[in-house]
Amino acid sequence: MLNAKDAQPPEAEPTNVWYRSDTLDVTVEGWFDSLAAWVETWGLDASAAGWLATAICAVGLALVCYLGNRFTKFLIRYFVLRPYRNKPDHPVSLLLKYKVVTRLSHLVPLFLLAYGLPLLSYLYVDVWTQPLIDVYIIWIGVMIILGLIDVLEDVYESKGLEERFALRGVTQAGKLVVVLVGILLLVSVLFAKSPIYFLSGIGAAMAIILLIFKDTILGLVAGIQLNANKMIQVGDWIQMDSQNADGEVLEVTLTTVRIENWDRTISLVPAYQMISESFINWQGMSESGGRRIKRSLMIDMSSIRFTDAELLARLQRLQLVGDYIGDRSREIDEWNTKNGVQADLEANGRCQTNIGIFRAYVKNYLSNHPMIHTEGFTFLVRQLQPTELGLPIELYVFTKDNRWVQYEEIQADIFDHLLAAIPEFGLRIFQSPSGSDFQKLAV
Hints:
Oligomer: single chain
Helix content: 40-55%
């Protein structure tokens, strides 16, 4: 009668793998011996009976593993996951969505294989099946970890935390590391070598690896820097002129940053270029509650003059500068009297000008505007260097509403009023001559 132990070499030692034990081997080998003995009663010799018994065990074990897997999935779906089918945001539902629980069901066939492996010990069949089981273990482990990473990313995004910290680049880097470790373990199992053996020889291939994974490696490092330093986040408004990108960040991945421009086009910028090149992040403006107005009125310098009594009287009727003109006039008169200034020539002493009163008017107008910050933000009305286009009077203030449409409305409303008010001060806006101007000269 054939005995399973007869197929083992004399020096064979008990296996040390975690899913095999001496007690289990003895029990299962007893089953194999009984099956082989029964097959021999069919009139086969010992060798043929051993092969046939092994084939029967292999088919039976495969069938049991398949049925065990299907039954486990059935139990999970109808008794564990069914109560959460209508709760898509529940973590258990996410485990179903990303097939984490169903992948865990593959552990059942794994244990069945572990217990039934001695059935395949005839003529060392288990010697080459053992690496296959190890590969199976690694594959299941990698798939489960990848699924858990997807669940983590989904939970993170569902809570609206993506705008604070772009996790997708980190999760993609984590997936890459998991896959690389899995490949390393698979190769070590298939070639029966320690993972350290392959790591020691990876230096020779490092140049090729760096060439192939150049963008991935640069993107990984850049993604870590972008997130660690909080340089950009989903929802930020960034401007990167070198890449013609000006819009809102939609996604930060391992290798690219996806930006929706204001004209609705999409820009894909390599992550490492966000580190190596400069860009403007307008998010600070969005969070500050103020948006800057920095625009100038170009005054025709030929219209600038000292104010006479008639102009002062008319301008003093303006509520925004009436008190200013009165206080300023008294101050100037006291100074001129104290210094004995001859009043026949205005240039001898101090005198108010229409441009100075206009600048005070602009400042007071902005101070009383309900949508302009007067505290906590820079508030400035100033003259700039005169140019061939006139004297710039620059407004450097911040609006209280930083939304684009509302901001433009506030800015336009301010300049509409100032442009219309300038003639009251005897001033003119400079503009380059147009065709109609030349026609008037010809006449």
